[in-house]
Design goal:
Number of helices of chain A: 14
Shape of chain A: globular
Number of strands of chain A: 16
Function (chains A, B): Catalyzes the phosphorylation of the beta-carboxyl group of aspartic acid with ATP to yield 4-phospho-L-aspartate, which is involved in the branched biosynthetic pathway leading to the biosynthesis of amino acids threonine, isoleucine and methionine.
Strand order of the largest sheet of chain A: 3-5-2-1-8-10-11-9
Oligomer: homodimer
Largest interface: A-B, 61 and 62 residues
Domain ACT (chains A, B): 389-451
Organism (chains A, B): Streptococcus ovuberis
Radius of gyration of chain A: 25 Å
Pfam family, one (chains A, B): ACT_9
Helix content of chain A: 25-40%
Mean pLDDT of chain A: 92
GO molecular function (chains A, B): aspartate kinase activity; ATP binding
CATH class of the largest domain in chain A: Alpha Beta
Number of domains of chain A: 2
Chain lengths: 451, 451
């Protein structure tokens, strides 16, 4: 039994929906379909979700919303017309879109979430109708009915664990079950959306709930590449990744799936595959708990920008019990998380994401280091990138660090910092952002040699 | 103007003292001589300091101390006889040794320090007399008279900064000034000893005080080797080291000078040279503030054993602001300092010295990590060594890491962790202790190739 999730670009037009129908029909195991809202048909187009945000803004400002409603309804209507659907489903959808403007504005914590969720919700209705009319018995199931109960945190709903038992009952349906992604329902019955990557989270939750054999996540790419295609021309695509590898890659710039979306499937021990709606015969990238066979040591190379280093020197620092803790305390009091803390004997650096800093926070950090901790020197250095080489199998390949360091040094790239060994899955380099692309090139050539 | 310090093995016998006289005479700039207590003449011998400890123990236990006194007096007497000194100095020394047994036992915080310090103090008297009798006008100056005022912390005296101005007045002497090392005098006039490396500290303080051009520290080795001679056969000796390099090497196993001894000279910007009393024509190892010329990238390779790693995993650890600080807080509450904290995304290791652990502390760490911080996994792994390659010039040699990693991997040595970049002076590897010697061999061959 498989859970299939389709992203917005896979559901943007009648033509795309035909591909979706073929995909679901092609495998009788595909019993659960989780859908996003219709995405852009072309680069000039507006996403339905963005149109709903406009609609919401006009509504709460008590402006006329007729044009907003009409644009959204027309968006669904066009698909319905092209697919030749019977009018019944569009009557329901149009009513649902209009009914949003009847929701109370005052003291309604969930108003924004209710507007947003309508994109997915109505698309699920339309798709279920389309499946039914084309020989694929299907049923639209609202998250409330599906049992997806969440915490009442608008825009950041968390699944309530008891939901899984209710979701499991969906296995009782004979038809294909079509569920809108991106939101759940609180215990009080309010619509509440997940954070970023919302429909992926729903797919992951449903897969865990129905104990799927596989969670198929259909996007518009042939899976995950071993390096960023904007930097490496035609990079290899990865056939198999572990959850740990995926998470390490996601940390430094790989954004195919948001890592929060992985948690329910990971905990439910459900393998996941990322496939391409436009090229369904491509095997895609499978994300598994454990590699099925011997892999090459490095599966992917990722990089992320926007890091700064707070470098601190103090003579005899390492004799001072509590020094490192106090440095982290200063940051924590300013609500700043750290990424890495490479340490020397009398030196310590704290790598943080630059977006966490403001001029006032910077000044405060340096002031406290100098006056409270009496350091000899403290400085904030900018324009660093983190480069990661990832692979569960690296541990058993002794020479990986040597190969990587040599590849970088041969290209004249200075390694500002290396952190290896805490995670068995990755080696992390800090380099100057100006050298990032050259560094990725060098590592890609070293670990993915052309045959 | 130079301050010369001689260690115990340089002062163990009349034969050794003759070498010392020759050394001081050879350079009229050698105006200040700091001396240790007489060391062992051979491996079966007893150090005077150890004999003084016995004497102290018997004295506080109210046992008969005559034999202790006689042994110590005889030790000086033998040297005096061999050197043909006039009896006057031995009369003073014998009285001083006997007078120790007149010091109050009750409420005397400084009794032990007074006994210990007698080894250096009386040796200084003897050496000053010897110099005088052999054509080198010299004067014995007690630390009280020299102005070496210290905090009243027995066994851990700290110099009081105002001392330096008084010490500077020693420049007024025309004679060679002979000062006993290892102790100062409190504001109340009590004898109080320094911590480990005590005579080196005195030399360093005097050098800073008299604003010496050079602090010559005479030992029984030809300076500092680039790697441990017990592991590398005939290692190169280092001609020039910076204070920072010295301190990094001292951290991981190089123990020629205790790092606390370096502080006054370092702060006074006095260069230091480590030389061999038994081979004074060897240039030794000079320790400077800044390299005088272009050095090879790596000056030394050091290693130290007895490290453990507390490895911690928690899914989404790096999203949790304050997590790292809380881990360090747990350790700090148990009075445990950390050495290094390599971090992955969901993983963190804390490297600590094993001697800081007890079974109860270990259990408490794991308990708190599991219950208070709710980690997914926490474990204490043992038998790690830290391996450091040190050199101020590494930063400008891009390939150093690559060379080191390749050398280790070629010998099949697994790098458990690397920390590079926080200190510009060193690269640190954590490896299994069982592979330490092979690792040092591999690195030595890589960075100190045979010509």
């Amino acid at each position: 039994m498989k859970v299939v999730k389709f992203g917005g670009s896979s559901l943007a037009s009648a033509q795309q929906l035909e591909k979706v129908l073929d995909i679901v029909k092609a495998d009788p195991e595909r019993k659960f379909v989780v859908v996003s809202a219709p995405g852009k048909r072309d680069s000039q187009d507006t996403k339905v979700t963005d149109a709903l945000i406009q609609y919401y803004k006009h509504y709460v400002a008590e402006k006329n919303v007729t044009a907003d409603q009409e644009w959204i309804i027309e968006r669904y209507q066009a698909m319905s017309d092209e697919l030749g659907l019977k009018p019944k489903v569009m009557t329901k959808i149009a009513q649902a879109i209009k009914d949003l403007a009847k929701l109370p504005i005052q003291d309604n914590l969930f108003l924004y979430d209710s507007f947003l969720a309508a994109g997915e919700d109505n698309n699920a209705k339309l798709i279920a109708a389309y499946f039914n009319q084309n020989g694929l018995p299907a049923v639209y199931v609202h998250p409330k009915e599906a049992g997806i109960t969440v915490t009442p945190e608008p825009g950041n709903a968390q699944i309530i664990p008891s939901s899984y038992d209710r979701i499991e009952k969906l296995r009782g349906y004979d038809e294909v079950v079509v569920i809108p992604g991106f939101f759940g329902v609180t215990a009080e019955g309010d619509i509440c959306t997940f954070s970023r990557g919302g429909s992926d989270i729903t797919g992951s939750i449903v897969a865990a709930g129905v104990k799927a054999d596989l969670y198929e996540n259909f996007t518009d790419v042939d899976g995950i590449f071993s390096a960023h295609p904007g930097i490496i021309k035609n990079p290899q695509s990865i056939s198999e990744l572990t959850y740990r590898e995926m998470r390490e890659l996601a940390y430094a710039g790989f954004t195919v799936l948001h890592d929060e979306a992985l948690i329910p499937a990971y905990r439910g021990r459900i393998p996941l595959v990322i496939k391409n709606t436009n090229n369904p015969s491509h095997p895609g990238t499978k994300i598994v708990l454990k590699h099925s066979r011997n892999q090459q040591p490095v599966v992917g190379i990722s990089a992320d920008d926007g890091f700064v280093s707070i470098t601190i020197s103090k003579y005899l620092m390492n004799r001072e019990i509590g020094f490192g803790r106090k440095v982290l305390q200063i940051l924590e009091d300013l609500n700043i998380g750290f990424e890495h803390i490479p340490t020397g004997i009398d030196d310590m650096s704290v790598i943080i994401r630059e977006r966490q800093l403001t001029p006032i926070k910077e000044e405060e950090i340096l002031r406290q280091l100098t006056h409270k901790l009496e350091v000899d020197h403290a400085e904030i250095e900018r324009d660093f990138s983190i480069l990661m080489i990832v692979g569960e199998n690296m541990k058993s390949h002794i020479g990986v660090t040597a190969t990587a360091a040599k590849a970088l040094s041969d290209k004249g790239i200075n390694i500002e910092m290396i952190s290896q060994g805490s995670s068995e899955v990755s080696i992390l380099f800090v380099i100057k952002t100006a050298q990032k692309n050259a560094a990725i090139q060098a590592l890609y050539e070293a670990f993915f040699p052309k045959n």
